[in-house]
Amino acid sequence: MALVTPVTEKQESEAAGPASAASGGARPFASFIVCTRDRVKLLVACIRSIETTCLAHPAIASELIVVDNGSTDGTHAELRRIAAASKVPMTLVPEPRQGLAVARNTGMERARGRIFVFIDDDCVVDRAYLGDLKRHYQSGDGVIRGGRVELGNPNDLPFTIKRSKAAARLTPDVHPGGFVLGCNMTMDREVALRVGCFDERFGVGAPLCSAEDTEYLVRAYALGIPVEYVPDMTVFHHHGRRARAAIEKLHRSYSLGNGALCLKHLVKAPWLVKHFLWTVRSACLESFGGARFDPALQLSHWPVVAMNLLGAARFLCLFIVGRAAPTALQPMSEVAPKQERGP
């Protein structure tokens, strides 16, 4: 799958907003890419927050790409209404093929900016986000960079967040899962060209359920691209999970994907096996009174071990039957989809 492909008139995305024409041929600094499916209320809050940070930093040219991954809850009509009145250039892209990785790839195809910013539809970005982003990318260094993720609602359980106040870079001593969260992940477009598409076998809606973001980080690291966490560029995650059973289900899903990527990158990133063995050791120690995977949420190491193995087995089956892997990307600089005015 190429990151940029020729677009026919029929395939052209629906774009709108008074700012659409203003974007002209000049490349924006940032392309916010939001993928969504049947979460229209959360999506509206997400879009409003992106508009707020863009309007708070008018000197930083930005655009918003919203990929609708087959919604049936009125998302399409609501997006057209928002886009028609928005002061931020918006491109609305229907993507009927199911899968978060598919939607992310579609968003990258349509993005025109120098920096790609992946924000989940259940997240709200901080007003200062765009200023933080600009500051971190002033030097033009080719990195993948993730920011802070806070709970959007204090009643939600503290999961799928990252609150560290210290900047850090990924090393083989750190498991890549959760180092940079896919709900708040940024990169230079040149990095995207080097790494390629998201592997569409991973992620929500795909056979491997999760870890499309972590798998991307592993591929980047194997290419010598730094992966960095910064304690600003903050988003607030409204994940809505307040029952332990929901967290346990998500915990197992993440472990499935991580097991698959461990096998996929057995040669290029053998250090992932070390982390699996450490988990096995921790699970054994847990059986004799040792610490759990997450003591606060009472999450055990044993489901991680079991789902890692299942994920590896599932990846092997997909590999044997020849399910497609990500392809190299074509240069994006010369091709950008035409934008149309809204109604």
Task: Provide a descriptive summary of the structure in words.
There is one protein chain. The protein has helices at residues 19-23, 40-56, 75-85, 100-110, 129-136, 189-195, 212-222, 244-264, 271-287, 302-321; strands at 14-16, 30-36, 62-68, 90-94, 115-119, 123-125, 144-146, 149-151, 168-169, 184-188, 227-229, 235-237. The protein has a nine-stranded mixed sheet, sandwiched between helices. Helix content is 37%, strand content 14%. By secondary structure, the protein is α/β, with parallel strands linked by helices. Strand 3 (62-68), helix 3 and strand 4 (90-94) form a beta-alpha-beta unit.
Order of helices and strands: EHEHEHEHEEHEEEEHHEEHHH
Gyration radius, to the nearest Å? 20 Å
Given as residue ranges, the uncertain stretches (5+ residues, pLDDT < 50) are 4-23, 333-343
Strand order of the largest sheet: 1-4-3-2-5-10-7-11-9
- Figure out the total of helices: 10
Mass-distribution shape: globular
Structural class: alpha/beta
Strand content: 5-15%
Overall helicity: 25-40%
The total count of strands amounts to: 12
Measured between the Cα atoms of the first and last residue, the distance is 32 Å
Q: Main sheet, how many strands, which sense, barrel?
A: 9 strands, mixed
Q: Please, what is the average pLDDT? A: 90
